[in-house]
């Protein structure tokens, strides 16, 4: 809009380009008062008195308008330097850091590239065709009527529960899930824009989305022979008529351990959940002590276990669904990627914990307690009323409604809490796009959650040592949403290029482990990077896992804003955030890269705390 005259970027004395230095206090241009952005009030004050610099105008607004007091330099400094006596000294010496997304991420170790070895080589896109992928797609479609290849991404990871270990190889430490599909964003947007419509539709509207599962050891290495791909929707009879619904029955898959059980989360019409049981050939097949292991003979077929057949990968690993998935309707038809977590029973510590579904994260943190094993049977009409959108055909015929009618039981009403604090540090988007021009959606979505941080963990790593209660911590994502003006010819291409849509960033958040689950802290934005380039089909020594030929493709789409390219994929999507098996001081983060590949990294808990409660001179202020 051309209203803000920013000073040129300033860097520290070492020439570090990790951040921009500005006299404007971080958070000033993301704060609202009386329905207006403080940035608009600062702009108005500067227009009224042209002799004022931007920093002076911000300070005047901060002193005059209580809701914008963070814009006052003295108030900004006092917030972060609570023990500082002479704020004017700090105002002269320090300015706010606005971080690049690829420099503000947590420091990590043990990066691991993920590859499903059970996917047949003939169903892999040959690297020799990467440069003429459009022709390759056309050839595959002519031969098979589909694109005829798979990629795997968006990893879900859980530590194997104790009760399941006797039935699996002793070295099995984790269960990994991956989405297996031909739908991808491995190649540049311009490459896909040139595809004929039939190929574009086959790419993005594919009905093929399989469940990949893999057992991993403590070092995230796959156990040979325990790597499978399962065609879940057809086995359960939950397909959609492709002539009506141009989307798969299921999309992303996630795993959670709740009360020592593995739960499978799937995105269908909304979120559906069930329990998994694993058995490996050659190990104990005795029935575990599960409370629901014995199902009455006259039980509804949908309530009985389903032994799944493996499409690829052999039969060493037997996967069983405990029952047909139950649907969580709390978030409506647009709900997806809910985090599931449990809270211990405060009066009976040995009893199972209460299970919750995190529906929304910011600006309102909405959480619903559920009983995932119990359900209310909806009528087809009730499902139709849930799903019908004005302007669409008033009919619905879909086998997947079997699970849509199984509404997971809710306990009381959902809790909602507002008033999430400002980010703990600022990023370049606030500097470049103040006020209402913010490119990223205010609402944060899952993401992955939740890890328990004890009082000791919270007091070790950040600048605070006065935490008296534990917190639950997760990671959310937000993105630049597509808007109608992107398709308008009268909008300059320069404007579209400056704020490209469907670009993702993430942030950490921490909240109380009890209702209403008030958010107490959140970090600034960051992104996670690519796997390193490989040579001779081998991973470099710095990267664990198994070589995935698609890893090189994630650099075809880079995160961009304000015509700046960041060293991250356009879409990094965090789908795992768990405590490391056997090491409560470390976190494992799993993420997908451009809907093309998946990766795991380890992060120390104290590093998470550092970003949620940073040292002001580390993440917030810099010396001019």
Features:
624 residues, alpha+beta, six-stranded antiparallel sheet, 15 helices, 32% strand, globular, disordered N terminus
What's the SSE blueprint?
Elements: E1 19-22, E2 32-33, E3 36-37, H1 38-48, H2 54-64, H3 73-80, H4 87-93, E4 94-99, E5 109-114, H5 133-144, E6 151-159, E7 174-181, H6 189-193, H7 197-204, E8 209-216, E9 222-230, H8 232-236, E10 253-258, E11 261-267, E12 271-280, E13 306-308, E14 317-321, E15 326-328, E16 339-343, E17 354-360, E18 365-377, H9 380-387, H10 401-404, E19 406-417, E20 426-427, H11 428-432, E21 445-453, H12 455-458, E22 471-479, H13 493-498, E23 504-511, E24 519-522, E25 544-545, E26 558-561, E27 564-569, E28 572-580, E29 583-593, E30 597-604, H14 605-612, H15 616-620, E31 621-623
Parallel strand pairs: 4-20, 5-25
Antiparallel strand pairs: 1-4, 2-3, 4-31, 5-30, 6-7, 7-8, 8-9, 10-11, 11-12, 12-14, 12-15, 13-14, 16-17, 17-18, 18-19, 21-22, 22-23, 23-24, 26-27, 28-29, 29-30
> What's the helix count?
15
Shape descriptor reads globular
Major sheet details: 6 strands, antiparallel
> Which structural class matches the secondary elements?
alpha+beta
Q: For this entry, what is the oligomeric state of its chains?
A: single chain
Topology, number of strands = 31
The fraction of residues assigned to DSSP E strands is 25-35%
* Rg: 25 Å
**Termini Cα gap:** 28 Å
Helix content: 10-25%
Low-confidence stretches: 1-14, 286-294
State mean pLDDT (0 to 100 scale): 89
């Amino acid at each position: 809009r051309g209203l803000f005259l920013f000073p040129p970027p300033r860097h520290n004395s070492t020439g570090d380009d990790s951040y921009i230095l500005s006299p404007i206090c971080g958070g000033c241009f993301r704060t609202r008062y009386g329905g207006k952005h403080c940035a608009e009030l600062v702009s108005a004050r500067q227009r009224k008195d042209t002799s004022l610099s931007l920093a002076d105008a911000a300070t005047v607004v901060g002193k005059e308008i209580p809701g914008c007091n963070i814009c006052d330099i003295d108030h900004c400094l006092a917030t972060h330097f609570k023990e500082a006596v002479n704020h004017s000294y700090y105002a002269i010496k320090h300015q706010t850091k606005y971080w690049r997304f690829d420099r503000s991420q947590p420091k990590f170790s043990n990066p691991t590239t993920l590859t499903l070895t059970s996917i047949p080589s003939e169903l892999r896109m040959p690297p020799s065709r990467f440069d003429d992928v459009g022709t390759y797609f056309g050839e595959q479609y002519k031969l098979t009527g589909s694109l005829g290849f798979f990629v795997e991404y968006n990893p879900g990871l859980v530590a194997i529960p104790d009760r399941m270990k006797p039935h699996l190889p002793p070295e099995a430490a984790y269960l990994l899930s991956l989405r297996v599909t031909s739908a991808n964003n491995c190649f540049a947007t311009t490459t896909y824009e040139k595809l004929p419509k039939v190929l574009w539709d086959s790419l993005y509207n594919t009905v093929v989305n399989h469940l990949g599962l893999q057992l991993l050891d403590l070092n995230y290495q796959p156990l040979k022979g325990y790597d499978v791909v399962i065609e879940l929707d057809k086995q359960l009879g939950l397909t959609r008529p492709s002539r009506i619904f141009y989307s798969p029955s299921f999309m992303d898959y996630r795993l959670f351990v709740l009360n020592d059980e593995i739960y499978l989360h799937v995105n269908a019409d909304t979120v559906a959940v069930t329990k998994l049981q694993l058995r490996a050939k050659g190990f104990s097949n005795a029935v575990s002590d599960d409370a629901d292991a014995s199902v009455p003979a006259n039980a509804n077929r949908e309530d009985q276990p389903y032994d799944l057949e493996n499409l690829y990968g052999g039969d060493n690993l037997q996967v069983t669904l405990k029952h047909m998935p139950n649907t969580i309707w709390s978030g409506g038809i647009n709900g997806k990627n809910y985090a599931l977590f449990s809270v211990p029973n405060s009066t009976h510590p040995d009893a199972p914990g209460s299970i919750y579904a995190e529906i929304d994260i910011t600006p309102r943190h909405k959480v619903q307690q559920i009983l995932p094993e119990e359900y209310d049977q909806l009528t087809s009409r009730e499902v139709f009323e849930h799903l019908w959108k004005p302007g669409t055909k008033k009919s619905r015929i879909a086998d997947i409604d079997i699970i849509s009618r199984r509404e997971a039981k809710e306990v009381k009403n959902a809790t909602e809490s507002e008033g999430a604090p400002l980010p703990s540090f600022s990023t370049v988007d606030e500097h470049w796009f103040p006020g209402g021009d913010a490119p990223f959606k205010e609402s944060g979505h899952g993401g992955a959650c939740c890890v328990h941080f004890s009082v000791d963990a919270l007091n070790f790593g950040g600048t605070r040592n006065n935490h008296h209660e534990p917190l639950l911590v997760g990671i959310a994502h937000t993105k630049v949403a597509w808007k109608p003006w992107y398709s308008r010819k009268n909008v300059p291409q320069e404007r579209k290029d400056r704020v490209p849509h469907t670009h993702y960033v993430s942030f950490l958040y921490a909240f109380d482990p009890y209702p209403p689950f008030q958010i107490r802290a959140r970090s600034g934005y960051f992104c996670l990077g690519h796997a390193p380039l490989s040579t001779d089909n081998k991973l470099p020594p710095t990267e664990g896992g198994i070589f995935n030929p698609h890893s090189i493709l994630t650099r075809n789409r880079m995160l961009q804003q304000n015509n700046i390219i960041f060293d991250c994929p356009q879409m990094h999507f965090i789908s795992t955030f768990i405590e490391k098996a056997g090491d409560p001081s470390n976190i494992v983060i799993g993420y997908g890269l451009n809907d093309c590949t998946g990766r795991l990294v380890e992060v120390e808990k104290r590093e998470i705390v550092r970003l949620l409660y940073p040292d002001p001179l580390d993440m917030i202020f810099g010396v001019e």
